[in-house]
Amino acid sequence: MEFVVNNILVLTQALWALNGGTHIKQFQLPRPKPVPQNNNSSIISASDMGISDEEWDRLQKAMDWPIPDQITNLNQSTSPVHSSFSIVGLKESYKVGEKISVTITARDHNKNQKRYGGDFFKAKLFNSKLKASVYGEVVDHRNGTYSVAFLLLWEGQAQVFVRLEHSSEVVQIIKKYRDSSFPRSHYIGYFEGLGPNKTRIYEVMECNLKWGPDGSWKKGNCCCEYKDIKTGTMWQCERPKTLSCDKLVHHSLGHLENPLNMFEQQLFSK
């Protein structure tokens, strides 16, 4: 999922000068106001994360991902082949320290321009011989176009590289299952102990993680619960038929479950 590379010639120029003898006062972070979480069960502040209010707001905006339209046809998803990018005001040469702007236009597999955002693009400026590169911040205009600004940091050739990591449709699929309590991985619990006649009994039961206080893998009084002392992770295993819950010896990975339906799988492969 890659686009054609463009070459740019960068000329050298001194850009930065030393602050000789200039006293620079150390910046003191202001104490941020508490920011409530969505569930209102607890409060987290920017100071808890060691950042300023401004940085907190920037991170919140960066995490706000546009929601695309619902599509019914695979060809309506973003196409890496038909999407394109161009350098705004392309010149024959540039100076070190200049910025170049790149515009990305997302199109679907029918070559129609997308009318909403949410695509996950990566863009970088690089020189393979110098082993120099810099990534640009992709700004989503939420109308099918994106802009990127690069700072030219070295002398010589430079190439622009743009890659579509995930279409906006696939991003929403990832987000949906990230936020869900879907049991992606399944585990096997091994119980061992003595039975009524002092005979050794072995029982193998299905286990899984417990996702939050209401994220029980199976409902009802079905399971034994365990807590990892180091991580605080809660486990559940189906209650053995004969042995008690404290007879769990160890567990292993059972199988991985694919949560995607057929249409979602096709979107990933598209």
Automatic annotation (TrEMBL):
Chain segments annotated as transmembrane: none
Protein known as: NXPE family member 3-like
Gene3D superfamilies, per the entry: Immunoglobulins (2.60.40.10)
Organism in which the protein naturally occurs: Cirrhinus molitorella (mud carp)
Record SUPFAM superfamilies: E set domains
